[in-house]
Amino acid sequence: MTLTVDGIDALKQLVGSELGTSEWIDVTQDRIDGFADATGDHQWIHVDVEKAKAGPFGAPIAHGYLTLSLFIPLFTGLLDVRGVTTKVNYGLDKVRFPSPVTSGSRLRLVARLAEVQDVPGGVQIAVDGTIEIEGATKPACVLRSLSRFYA
Q: How far apart are CA 9 and CA 3, in angstroms?
């Protein structure tokens, strides 16, 4: 369920709040192969299904950066800030990949608004995110994402 906020002042009131849990997203072999094609990273652990079955994880695994890139569609479903004209990714403060994501897994995001800081023309937000793997004890990715919202 998307949390809708009316303007930057209302967003500032949410600092420290959980933004919610996203819907699940499927990490299919087609998605992994497409990411490999887009990045030129065709390492066998990602794209050679038969060889990966005999590898350390028993199946192909998603690229860490593929998992990280899924933050955007997962986060978009959690927060909608009205009254801003532009939203841009500003960067990342910290990223870790505690557990591999095997082909066929499902992921979701749990997010918390950690900070909102004024910047010229808008605000910079810091979101602490945990990308969970369905049925796993360890998350796929833990991160702090920085975005800027301009009024």
A: 15
**φ, ψ for residue 84, nearest 5 deg:** -115, 150
Q: Is the torsion defined by CA of 136, 142, 148, 151 positive or negative?
A: positive
Containing 135, the helix (H) or strand (E) segment is none
Which sequence spans correspond to the domains of the chain?
Answer: 3-150
Please calculate the CA angle 92-93-97 and round it to the nearest 5 degrees: 80
Task: Give the CATH architecture of domain 3-150.
Answer: Roll (3.10)
Q: What pairing do the DSSP bridges indicate for beta strands 105-119 and 122-133?
A: antiparallel
Interval 115-147: pLDDT, tens? 999 999 999 999 999 999 999 999 999 999 999
Whether residue 28 is predicted with pLDDT greater than 90 in this model: the reply is yes
3-state secondary structure of 128: strand
pTM over 0.90: yes
Give the DSSP H/E element, type plus range, for residue 119: strand 105-119
pLDDT value, residue 151: 87
